Amino acid sequence: MYKIDAQQSPAAQVTSEGATNVQVQWLIDESRGAPHFAMRRFIIQPGGHTPRHAHPWEHEVYVLRGRGLVVTEEGEQEVSPDQAIFIPPGQPHQFLSYEDETLEMLCLVPNGPATEDH
To answer: d(Cα 63, Cα 19) in Å, to the nearest integer?
Structure first.
């Protein structure tokens, strides 16, 4: 078993092109004994956003705090606490926080190409 206090996990600035005011905390991954999936917490500061991007793996997102938008080819949808979002492989997507709120969410991805840059 592995247990972590997420408040004690260091947050790193996301430096991907197109990311603005986004931090990530790697909570559980292969280095901590998880063979299949990685769990990360993203913190998007007010007015911040992830890059608009797509990749060949799925991911599951659970909103912890704040409100914002998820943007896909299907349009914009509001996200808020206690909502779960499934992003299928290959779907372009982006998360944005509102100007007055920090958006925090868990994001789970499969180990492998999704976690190689970590």
So the answer is: 18
DSSP 54: -
Does a structural domain hold residue 102?
yes
112 phi-psi bin (left φ>0, alpha ψ -120 to 50, beta other): left
What does the pLDDT profile of the chain (118 residues) look like in tens digits?
989 898 888 999 999 999 999 999 999 999 889 999 999 999 999 999 999 999 999 999 999 999 999 999 999 999 999 999 999 999 999 999 999 999 999 999 998 877 877 6
In a domain, 16, yes or no: yes
User: Which structural domain range is residue 45 located in?
Assistant: 11-115
Contacts of 72 (CB under 8 A, 6+ apart): 87, 91, 92, 93
- List the CATH number of the domain containing 99: 2.60.120.10
Vertex 45 angle, CA 84 and 89, to 5°: 40
